[in-house]
Amino acid sequence: MPTLSAYPVGILADRMDRITILIIGLTLLVLADLVLAFSPGIMGIGIDVMLWGLHMGFTQGLFATLVADAVRSELRGTAFGMFNLVTGFAMLLASVIAGALWGVAGPQGTFLAGGGFALMATGGLLSFRGRLRNSA
What we know:
By secondary structure, the protein is an all-alpha fold. The protein has one domain. 91% of the residues lie in helices and 0% in strands. The chain has 5 helices and no strands.
């Protein structure tokens, strides 16, 4: 699904507000987490794979574009290195938190927490949307 959605989303990113596209991607992540939390069985997993893939198609290429747009050309290598370092650290921390939640609250609690974190990120983007647009 990321392969099928990344190209059309890239075209959209060239023509419309990138913050809106990022919000759509995060909304897809919230939906994917809700499906995993509440839809048992193979059908739920299939729907989740589709939603997760769309989320990746909406966000991953856009993150690279946002990094490239944020820095001068001579600092892009450093910026991508820092972005990947911070992303890797955040993924490690998220995995530790998810593992702890899984042990305490089970899979449903873990996916609900993941959806909650994505929802908080979406709320943050919405509240800072005007400032983010003006700085871009």
